[in-house]
Amino acid sequence: MSMRSGLGRSALSVFTLRPKGTEVQILTVVHSSIPLFLDPTLLVAAAHMEQTLELRRDAPALVEAASKIIRDADSGIRVTTKIIRR
Question: What residue spans define the domains of the chain?
Fold first, then answer.
């Protein structure tokens, strides 16, 4: 779910309705949508790697933005983040 869209923010707003003491873990998985296979020109492999590197670069800001929305809405919610790189 992209934080760039309104859908990401709408989904996160649900957490503001939780009782005090609630803990939320925000998880993002870095996984390219371009399959990794070797073609003779290596264009597909290069596109896969480029997308993976971009997703890895953006992941910390993505989970931090999501956690900030939740923390700003309710400081009583404990928020942790995790990034899985595949």
Answer: 6-85
Q: Which helix (H) or strand (E) holds 35?
A: none
What are the start-end ranges of the E strands in 8-54? 23-30
Residue 63, Cβ density class (10 Å: 0-12 exposed, 13-18 middle, ≥19 buried):
buried
Contact of 51 with 33, CB cutoff 8 Å: yes
Q: Along the 86 residues of the chain, how does pLDDT read in single tens digits?
A: 444 556 566 666 666 566 667 788 888 888 888 787 777 888 888 888 899 899 999 999 989 998 888 888 777 788 899 999 87
Interacting residues of 25 by C-beta distance below 8 A, sequence separation 6+: 79, 80, 81, 82
Tokens representing residue 72 in the block: 């700003």
Q: Give pTM, 2 decimals.
A: 0.66
